[in-house]
């Protein structure tokens, strides 16, 4: 099989001034892409900002013989995202890949979490993915080509104490790509999610130095490079960390149909095990498939 290459392609990576995003940007450039290195350069909680982070990674790419533009706009800034995309279009004339990776944390138990803490995290992760995606979407449609990778998390998929804000944002991104995968299909726009586990400033305080090294960002990077490539699937959620790769999927059980005469809260209670029976469960490709099943069951099928 041939190598995955990005020659003549243009990629934008948000939050690429450090951690995972830096690794993605360096590798895309090494494989021939022209790269916009976006990073606000702020603190882990979203405060502050400096162009040094984006500029540092863009300089690394150029020093290795690649092409890069540094951009220090916040992903939460509509006009800033539009200007970033225009900057790339003026320089290179197309945008093939968007990796929405920027992120912050405001961890607290829900009891202690303020609404502003919730909003700040939703803004950066969820709207901070929507805004750059919106800015590239019509360009990708016109090109009949696009690869979008959003960044979810095991917290969004399964939950984690102290991260109600982060989890809500991260699962919101799965809802986002579930529809982009459908709307992008006829224009060859594929949308996927990475669910990484990696040693970065986000996880530094949670693991030992040995584990931190063993789960370095470069072990996640190959999965993202594949999701950004011509051969990428669409609608996949790729979990990756330390060299391990797995797909996360949502399944729905076959369930039961309660005839009108049997319909009651008690019947739902009494049928709970049957409603949850995993035999025949399915992963749906679109929301309408759930409705089709209900209509089939209503008709006695
Ligand atoms: P990181 O803090 O090193 O990287 C995040 C980057 O985003 C930082 O460089 C930061 O400056 C930038 N950023 C923050 N707010 C921004 C904004 N408004 N505009 C532009 N840039 C902004 O941490 P990381 O671990 O590399 O995180 C990358 C992504 O992976 C995040 O979305 C994170 O939630 C996700 N993630 C990481 C892990 C993990 O184990 N490290 C697990 C699950 C998900």
What would you say this structure looks like, in words?
It holds the Pfam family adh_short. Keywords: Oxidoreductase. Residues 9-200 form the Ketoreductase domain. This is 3-oxoacyl-ACP reductase. Belongs to the short-chain dehydrogenases/reductases (SDR) family. This protein is of the alpha/beta class and 301 residues long. The protein has two domains: 10-247, 3-Layer(aba) Sandwich (Rossmann fold); 252-301. It is built from eleven helices and eight strands. The protein has helices at residues 19-30, 52-63, 78-92, 115-143, 154-158, 164-184, 209-214, 221-227, 265-270, 272-275, 288-298, and strands spanning 10-13, 34-38, 67-71, 97-100, 146-151, 189-197, 237-241, 244-247. An eight-stranded mixed beta sheet has the order 3-2-1-4-5-6-7-8, sandwiched between helices. α4 (115-143) links the parallel β4 (97-100) and β5 (146-151). The mean pLDDT is 97.
Quick take:
The chain is an alpha/beta fold. The chain is 43% helix and 14% strand. Strands 3-2-1-4-5-6-7-8 form an eight-stranded mixed beta sheet, with helices on both faces.
pLDDT averaged residue by residue: 97
Shape: globular
N- to C-terminal distance: 45 Å
**Strand coverage percent:** 5-15%
Q: What structural category characterises the helix and strand content?
A: alpha/beta
Domain Ketoreductase: 9-200
Organism: Chelatococcus reniformis
Family: Belongs to the short-chain dehydrogenases/reductases (SDR) family.
Keywords: Oxidoreductase
Describe the SSE topology.
Layout: E1 10-13, H1 19-30, E2 34-38, H2 52-63, E3 67-71, H3 78-92, E4 97-100, H4 115-143, E5 146-151, H5 154-158, H6 164-184, E6 189-197, H7 209-214, H8 221-227, E7 237-241, E8 244-247, H9 265-270, H10 272-275, H11 288-298
Parallel strand pairs: 1-2, 1-4, 2-3, 4-5, 5-6, 6-7
Antiparallel strand pairs: 7-8
Helix pairs in contact: 1-8, 3-4, 4-6
The protein binds nicotinamide-adenine-dinucleotide.
């Amino acid at each position: 099989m041939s190598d995955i290459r990005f020659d003549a392609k243009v990629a934008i990576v948000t939050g690429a001034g450090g951690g995972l995003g830096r690794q993605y940007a360096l590798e895309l450039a090494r494989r021939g892409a022209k790269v916009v290195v976006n990073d606000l350069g702020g603190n882990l909680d979203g405060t502050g900002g400096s162009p040094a982070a984006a500029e540092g990674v863009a300089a690394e790419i150029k020093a290795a013989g690649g092409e890069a533009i540094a951009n220090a706009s916040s992903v939460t800034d509509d006009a800033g995202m539009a200007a970033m995309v225009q900057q790339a279009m003026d320089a290179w004339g197309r945008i093939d890949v968007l990796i929405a990776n920027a992120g912050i944390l405001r961890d607290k138990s829900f009891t202690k979490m303020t609404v502003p803490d919730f909003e700040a995290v939703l803004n950066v992760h969820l709207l901070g993915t929507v805004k750059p995606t919106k800015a590239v979407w019509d360009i990708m449609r016109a090109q009949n080509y696009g690869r979008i990778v959003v960044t979810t998390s095991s917290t969004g998929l399964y939950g984690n104490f102290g991260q109600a804000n982060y989890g809500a944002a991260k699962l919101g991104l799965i809802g986002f790509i579930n529809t982009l995968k459908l709307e992008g299909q006829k224009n060859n726009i594929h949308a996927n999610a990475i669910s990484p586990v990696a040693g970065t400033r986000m996880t530094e305080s949670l693991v030992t130095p040995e584990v931190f090294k063993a789960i370095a960002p470069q072990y996640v990077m190959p999965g993202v490079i594949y999701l950004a490539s011509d051969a990428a699937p669409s609608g996949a959620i790729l979990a990756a960390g330390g060299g391990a790769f797995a797909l996360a999927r949502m399944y729905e059980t076959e369930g039961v149909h309660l005839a009108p005469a049997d319909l009651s809260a008690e019947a739902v209670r009494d049928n709970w095990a049957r409603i949850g029976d995993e035999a025949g469960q399915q992963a749906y490709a679109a929301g309408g498939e759930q409705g089709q099943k209900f209509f089939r069951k209503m008709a006695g099928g």
